[in-house]
Amino acid sequence: xxxxxxxxxxxxxxxxxxxxxxxxxxxxxxxxxxxxxxxxxxxxxxxxxxxxxxxxxxxxxxxxxxxxxxxxxxxxxxxxxxxxxxxxxxxxxxxxxxxxxxxxxxxxxxxxxxxxxxxxxxxxxxxxxxxxxxxxxxxxxxxxxxxxxxxxxxxxxxxxxx
Amino acid sequence: xxxxxxxxxxxxxxxxxxxxxxxxxxxxxxxxxxxxxxxxxxxxxxxxxxxxxxxxxxxxxxxxxxxxxxxxxxxxxxxxxxxxxxxxxxxxxxxxxxxxxxxxx
Lengths: 162, 105
Known about the structure:
The complex is a heterodimer. By secondary structure, chain A is of the alpha/beta class. Chain A has helices at 2-20, 26-35, 50-59, 63-72, 95-101, 129-140, 149-154, and strands at 23-25, 39-45, 73-79, 85-88, 91-94, 109-113, 119-124. The N and C termini of chain A lie far apart (63 Å). By secondary structure, chain B is mainly β. Chain B has one domain (4-103): Immunoglobulins (Immunoglobulin-like). In chain B, 8% of the residues lie in helices and 50% in strands. In chain B, the strands form two sheets. Chain B has a four-stranded antiparallel beta sheet with strand order 4-3-6-7, with no helix packed on it. In chain B, strands 1-2-5 form a three-stranded antiparallel beta sheet, with no helix packed on it. The model of chain B has no long low-confidence stretch (mean pLDDT 93).
């Protein structure tokens, strides 16, 4: 009887582990984003991180931010505590290793990839919905190629986009 | 800026509420470590939520909540409609209050 219980428990744990793990191929996602003329937006976060929760529950759940992300970005989240397998160019490893590889192992971090797969803009740390919405407009308009984010926010017309 | 960020959405007769209180939540242990006096502990002790003056949420809390704690709860939305305002208030150990309101969307 004990053996049966142990076997069942092992099977349940194995099934849960397998069902949770995802394969995230950043290069494929970049191509997918490119074909739909979007930026790839990778959100790095971890379990039991207060600022990550605030970002998820308030910033990313904001109506304006949600609309912008849905229409202009291909969104992928990576929880470094989950068993995701991430591949990016020559790299292959866990979510945590990926964050270390791209040198953004601060949580939460928002990474935006351009159409050749480079990180065109990155936002380490928490941002509220108003600032984040502005960042999304900044990335979507590819303004990062011309001016800094600070200069972008100083422009008179940016308020119209909010 | 409001001391509590409030978001409320009405869907299928249920109001889903998310609130984040901005508070340091200094525990007795941290207060002792930082100041040498446990009595300097300060954390939220009570939170209430009202819609149109009616209390819909009332909770006593302790030091075991994180800094800037997030609260999520659901309320039956029969009596309320979109556009009503949810007012949330907290009181901390030192008697300071914080408020925040959000429209039901």
